[in-house]
Amino acid sequence: MKIFLSVVSLLFVSIAFSQDKNTGVIQGKVIDSETGEGLPSAQVELIEQSKRILSDIEGIYNFSKLEKGTYSVRIVYPGIPTQVVNDIQVKTGEVTTIDVVMYPPSEDSLVEVVVTAKRITDTDQGVVLAQKNAISVGDVMSSQSISKSTASNTSDVLKMVSGASIQDNKFAVIRGLNDRYNAAFLNGSPLPSSESDRKAFSFDMFPSNMLDNLTITKSATPDQPAEFAGGLIQINTKSIPEKNFISFQVGTGINTITTFKDRTSYKGGKMDWLGIDDGTRKMPAAIPAQADYPTSIHDQAKIAQKFSTNWGTTESKFLPNLSVQASAGFNKKFGKREFGMIAALTYSRSFSYNETVRRGYSNSTDPNSVQSTQIDYDYLDKNNVTNLLAGGLVNFALKLNERNTINFKNIYSINSSDKLINRTGEINPLEENPNLLRSNARWFTSDRVYSGQLEGQHGLKLQGLKINWLAGYSNVQRSIPNLSRSIYTRSKNMNADNPNPYDTMYVANISLTNVGSSYGGGMFFSENHESSINERLDLSYATDLFGKIKSEFKIGVYNQVRTRKFEARQLGYTRYGVTGGNVKFDNSLLYLPEDQIFAPQNMGLIEEGVNGNPGKGGFKLTDGTKASDSYDARSILNAAYIQLDNRFAKRFRVIYGVRAEYFQQELNSLRDNKTELKINTKKLDFLPSINAIFEANKRTNIRLSYSQTLNRPEYRELAPFAFYDFTTNFVVSGNDTLKRALIHNLDLRYETFAGRGQLLSATIFYKNFQNPIEQKSRADVVNEISFQNVPSATNYGLELEARSLVSSLFKLDTASFFDKLTVYSNLSIIRSKVDVSTVVGSVADSRPLQGQSPYVFNAGLRYDNARNLWGVALNVNRVGQRIYIVGNVNEPDLWEKARTFLDLQITKGFWKGRAQFKLNIQNILAQDQIFYQNNSSERSSASGLNGFFNTIFVGDKNNNNNFDKKIDQQVWRTNFGRTFTASVSIRL
């Protein structure tokens, strides 16, 4: 992080002395209308100054240091009619962007085509063009679309993409397929899993202001990695700026049920404000390694005296949220060479308080049982959470000439969550005298992610030959320095027959010898280090076969090496004393409150024995670490591909080829019985794909694609390590018998582009899975989740997307209010079926895929008034109910209820557009998040319009899986508040 701060400081200083505010810039891109790609080596002439330059390998040109005035640009490219753009207005200190699309000659083409253009203010047009000419089915979000939306981080951006939704506020679900079936890439390099307990990446790590664009590829091509089924999420950060700039933003926010309300927390470390534990929670060096930990209770008592922990809590008020961002860009030309640099720092701290009702049930699958008799526990969790996000970005670019460019991109992110969960409630609440519970957990998690890429694009002298290469490195470190848990219980009432006042006093649940989730005084420590090195080399050659078929041949190789080392340690306080021995445990200690019970004076031998009487013992420190609590893993992926891109008769385009992937995966660990677990799998797969595009007219495409892709088990899913999640009451463990899944994908899309960023598309997709991997609860162990292959599954659906100006919809005057009003929406209707007829422990023969919603709906309304510098955006997002955890014959499926999110953003620019005020209102509806076990057999029949909509959107007339509070068993229910955020940004 110090490196980032130094580089950013240097950049800010250099820009402060190099700003040229007296001139302007004309910059743009020369684009091939047929491919949507930039045209390299196009001659671009600034007519008034007779200055000629060539566009670079990406088709970009730039004229800088221009006096204020009106200019014209002429673009010449062999075999394409010349374009002239007149009346280009250059203003002092501003960049005028002119993108020019070059169209092939027609029978009535003139030698020169004169086009009068105005300054482009909506990059949605460029995004739509890129989407129209893409070689695969996918969706794109531009930086301008992102900035105009209500998104604050990458997970918010994903919510707006067709067929995409977010689970747990950070994990991507695409086309109803959960996070494990989606791949994440940053600037062309794969992002390793940020989670130690699932195959997923937390997309709330990256602030949206760092993004240049976000693309989701939904159909495979040979030149892309094949390990995905829902979508390949490609995050691209900002690169060379158009001109030098410095930008600052500061914001604050409040939550209606959090800010200025009572807050319970604990004493953390001095570096918590940066998302890093400074060692306050760290295990002392005096604690022996697991292999050397003593078995003698007397030695364990001595160790306890060396281990000081603070279990007290503090009371305060929740402060408002805070966010600060600073960025700067630098661009300098040296003859034909151009050097660019962009850097950004972001910091945000947000607070949240919510309450979760948790209930546990038994025998809930018995149709003859009464629901009220099935409650095992009834808890209320008060969640006090501080989330912190700090990140830095430094990107460099060197343009050697119009054919050669080298980029070096770096991003570093720290994401931490600090929770204090206070749990109260009843155990077996329907008994005559139930037990009351008082428990809490202090849970600090810090994720640090670095990703860097060095890449080059080179156009060789041989026309049409290009070489692209990339070398990337990423590192993820997740630390849980001390997840501590306490448990106190007491009887609700005093026994009338044998009254004992101690029965109604809270007593700490501390074992004599055991450490685990059922006992208080437990502490969990873990470190997860994962690194990835990847290299890619692509060679492409464009030519005309037989003088008629425009073609591109592309070959490439790819290599990725991943390593992970995971270590966990579980310690806990236990009672020091032996019945009939020379030390007797002092039971009065168990009645002390949390801030006193584990004080140093209560450790080890408290009082020596006298005259043959046993001494008085306090607590000892026991090591409860299991043999399976650590593992190391490594994988190597070697891939090669060949891809051909042919255009026939100007309207037909076929992209086809095959990708070969050789994958080797190793994992070493111990099982709980201390037997060795060594996994070493090797697999070679040949994965064909074909994408066919028919251009019905200049604005309409019909796409048909088929591909084979993969889904491999993640390290965590194979490892025997078991983790107890305090918030869910579930234990998560691995399964070393998992196999890779093979997926057949079929897509058919109709898309039309009406211009000015407008589009309409409809997609039908079908997927067939062999051996898909799912997360499910184990039938042989209560409240434990693991992973399994099921024999087969299908997933199919319909995606509809539209974006249009209201003026176009109703054919109104383009100068009217409605010409500034954009309406957009996407709807996905999805069905899935998992064949579990041969799976032991399954309730039925089939069910939906885990995490798959029957529908996903996104819509928005955006008003942009460029003249008066203000805008309004309203976004709505709704995801249908979905299986959160697959159940078994003893535990029904756990479902997540459908929820609707509504967000509003108002922006107003001032100071000639250099400053902007932004007001965001997020989660306006503030609907509760509900997880439930449903009793579908008891649901009444739906009819009429309600039954019709249920049939269309959820595939069941009666909507049997929907939550009904009258008959369904509510397992978790969490409330949320509305968040109001105001920010001011200045760009110099």
Give an account of the 3D structure:
- This protein is mainly beta and 988 residues long.
- The chain has 2 domains: 1-120, Sandwich (Immunoglobulin-like); 317-570 and 625-987, Maltoporin, Chain A.
- Helices cover 7% and strands 54% of the residues.
- It is built from 9 helices and 54 strands.
- The chain has a 22-stranded antiparallel barrel. A 5-stranded mixed sheet has the order 3-2-5-6-9, with no helix packed on it.
- A hairpin with a 2-residue loop joins strand 20 (321-334) and strand 21 (337-361).
- Residues 116-122 and 364-373 have low confidence and may be disordered.
What does this entry show, briefly?
The protein is mostly beta strands and 988 residues long.
CATH homology superfamily name of the largest domain: TonB-dependent receptor, beta-barrel domain
Compute the CA-based radius of gyration. Answer: 31 Å
Helix content: under 10%
What is the molecular shape? globular
Can you tell me the CATH class of the largest domain? Mainly Beta
Q: What's the rounded overall pLDDT mean?
A: 84
And the CATH topology of the largest domain? Maltoporin, Chain A
Largest sheet: 22 strands, antiparallel, barrel
Number of discrete helical segments: 9
What is the number of strand segments?
54
Structural class: mainly beta
Number of domains: 2
The proportion of residues in beta strands is over 45%
CATH architecture of the largest domain: Beta Barrel
Low-confidence stretches: 116-122, 364-373
Head-to-tail CA distance between termini: 25 Å
